[in-house]
Amino acid sequence: MGPTLKSHEPFMKLALSESRKALPDCLPNPPVGCLLVKDGIVVASGYTKAPGRHHAEADALARYAGSLAGITAYVTLEPCSFQGRTPSCAEALISRGVSSVVVALTDPDPRNNGQGLEKLRRAGVEVVEGVCEQEVEGFLKQYLNNV
Description:
This protein is of the alpha/beta class. It contains five helices and five strands, in the order αββαβαβαβα.
């Protein structure tokens, strides 16, 4: 039996702390945080930068040079499935070989809205949804209406 939702909570709370660092530079993009965790240890973290620069996942990936086999990415908002000013974060996680992704919220942006999670699943990445959902939504909700 794999990790329980409760066992993911401490890492998601750290990812939420990372997301707070994104403000105000990330706006109008939502302030997202990401942790890369291997064997219960945070090996990299990141948060959304100014528009056109790294999203949280890409920021964390840029800080970790090793293999992502056995690594879980904790992300406060669903990784984007589409290429805009930056490449798709879901694709970046897949291409680097991440084992699993834990998210708090599905991105309500109609360009995403579950498509990033579906892309991850189709690539064989384990996806866990809804960890610390209410807490993260309490912080992110006001930034998700700007889409």
